[in-house]
Each structure stands twice: as C-alpha cells, then as structure tokens.
Predict the 3D structure of the following.
Amino acid sequence: MEKADTPLQQVQTNIAQACKLARRKVEEITLVAVSKTHPAEAIEPLLLEGQRHFGENRVQEAQGKWPALREAHPAVQLHLIGQLQSNKADDAVELFDVIHSLDRPSLVKALAKAMDKTGRRVPCFVQVDVGEEDQKGGCPVAELPALLELARDADLPLAGLMCIPPFDIEPAPFFAFLDKLARDHGLEGRSMGMSGDYETAIKLGSTHVRVGTALFGERFQATQH
Ligand SMILES: *Cc1c(COP(=O)(O)O)cnc(C)c1O
C-alpha cells in the first residue's frame, strides 16, 4: 500500500495545481508554514521534510522557539506575520528574515533605526487594511501611497504588499484588489492566502501564502487573530 501524503505534500500538490490553472510557475510561490502556537516537536517533522519558510505572529514566542531549531536547520527563513510594536523592532530585525506587517509611519522609523543599528536589511511587506477592519492592523488604503513613500525615503527594503481579508466573506475581490495595488505601486510581492483560500490567492497573483491550520492542524491556544 502507498503511504498517504503528509499535510505538507498535500498543500504542495494543491499549490502546484493552482499554479497550473493560473499558468504560473510553482517557483513564484513561497509557502510560509505558520507555526504560531505550535511547539518545536510539531515543527521538526516539517523541517525534516524540507520546509524552510516559517511564520510566527509574536516576537517573544519566536524568540523562545526558533534559536534552537535554527541551530539544527540554519537555512530556515523566519517570517513575522503578526502586528509589531515599535519597541520590539530591534528584536524583530535581529530574529526575522522577512516582516509582513509594516503598517504605519512610526514603525517605518523604528524598523529603519533597527536596521541601521544591526546592519541587517530585512525585506518588509506593507500590510494593507483591505477590509477596513481596525483590529487586524494594516495601513488604510488611502494612506498607502504616503507610507510607501516614507518607507522608500527611509531606504527600507520593500518586498510587496500583504493583506488579511475579512473573515467569512469571499476573499477573491480583496486579493484582486491587493494585486492591483501592488502593480500600481511597482511592487513584486503579494503576501496573501491562508489555509482556507491559498489556492484562490495564487490564482489572483499571490507570491507568499501563509498556511497554518492545513499544515499543523487546529490551534488550541488563543492568538491575536
Ligand atoms: C494565523 C495566521 C495565518 C494562518 O492561518 P491559517 O488559517 O491557520 O492557515 C496566516 N496569516 C496570518 C497573518 C495569521 O495570523
């Protein structure tokens, strides 16, 4: 009997299928495995399967889990996908390889300062509040041009745009909107799509899908979202 696919293999197959339908190359998509709330023992199997990009939403939790895991797997790329307080900018720049939640002028300043201090240049996605929901963070659409200009003036490496569409409504229009915004502003990356909608997001231009539940199962701990 053939062995059943692992969750990672299933997600990879779905990504490949979505790419085929969208006439895109799988290499255009980075799968970020969202390991927030999950302990090292749950992360190890994915590392052993070759997964390299991981997402965490809290600086402190990541500081506890990742230094040891990284020692064994130095090629790991850590993505910060949760809201970031300016006073944690130094810690975030030290630990993370990509930040997906740049959303306000004060954070541009804090991150620029942290990057100057540490000498690390960490690519940042600007999170856009596509659903006009304050609690998830994100820059209001109307303020995006000014924020991008500020980030460019501060010489922050800009990776692209990120969004978390409102829960429980059809996400496709929000993905299409983020794709258009990124194009209008000449940005490559689109961080969009989670367990329930990453295939849709890929069809609409996503370059970074952030997938937790489909890889790790349900989270039992409360999280920010
Ligand atoms: C938790 C989280 C995810 C992963 O969500 P799943 O539905 O478990 O795939 C993706 N993006 C962000 C910003 C998150 O906080």
Remarks:
- The longest helix spans residues 7-21.
- The two ends are 40 Å apart (CA to CA).
- The longest strand covers residues 30-34.
